[in-house]
Amino acid sequence: MTNILQNYRRVALFSILAIVPLLLISNSVISYGQTNTTNATNQTSTSGGPNSGLIKLIDSGILMIKSGDNEGAKKSLLQAESGLEDKPNVSGAEKHIEASLKALKDNDTNGALTHAEEAKKGLA
Amino acid sequence: MNRNLLIVYALCGILVATGIVYFLVAYGEYTDWVELLNFGIHDETTEKQVEITLFITSGLIYLGLVLWLIKTRFMKKSPYIAAIVVSVALIITYAASRTVGVPIVGVELYVGKLDVISKILQSVAIALSFAGLYKIQKSIHTLRA
Q1: What is the domain-level CATH number for residue A69?
Q2: Which residues, 6+ apart, have CB-to-CB distance to B12 below 8 Å?
Q3: Transmembrane residues, as ranges (chain B) (predicted)?
């Protein structure tokens, strides 16, 4: 019994030793595939197309990401995603919006911009 | 502390850490789901439910593996093999979800920080489990000799 208790204590100690450094470095870990900064312009023509409203929302999201307003960007992107409900033909764009939202949550601005631009391309 | 014990305690630590990471991922998915629902987005409900269930189950399995290892006093092969099988299966599932897609969830496009951390931890868990198995095998041979 004492042996088992000692084992549990040691396991707890090693768990802390394993997780603490990971949490400390988690802010410096670069997510793969999200680092290719896009310089694409976000001035896509939005007039007339069936998805122009959604593109405008994504555009405003992109501007907010660039200005550091992550909360505002999140709202714009969520509104855009809401507009994509029940539209299976643009599911690729929806996936990119979701990825952009996840990147925003991770404070990965480059990833968020890249995926927002990709979502816009999917709707254009 | 001898080398054998160091391996098994390190393995247990890594397994607990992996379990905790899975719980954090599940919590993240839950908050995402709540946000989507607040915006009236219901498309994702099934996907989120499946993901949350998978991540919580994975976290529990990792914690269960630690208890199993302790209960068998690190001397049986089966928990090590189970740790390898579970970790490999989860790594393959993750790779599929980022490439060819998985049922219900489809293809996910973002690789997050916690995803990277969990894959590193799982790779270390696989390596340590093999090391543990090797040590057990070696001890058996020594006892027989």
Answers
A1: 1.20.120.660
A2: A10, A11, A14, A15, B66, B69, B70
A3: 7-27, 52-70, 79-96, 116-134
Partner residue facing B13 (CB), from A17, A98, A103:
A17
- A-B contacts at Cβ under 8 angstroms: 109
* Number of domains chain A is built from: 1
Instruction: Kindly give, in sequence order, each residue whose CB lies less than 8 Å from that of residue B82, ignoring residues fewer than 6 positions away.
Output: B65, B68
Asked if B115 contacts A102 with a C-beta cutoff of 8 angstroms, the reply is no
Structure-token pair, residue B56: 């919580």
pLDDT digits 0-9 by tens, B134-144: 999 998 888 88
Residue-wise pLDDT tens digits, B95-113: 999 999 999 899 999 999 9
ipTM above 0.90, yes or no: no
A10: in domain: no
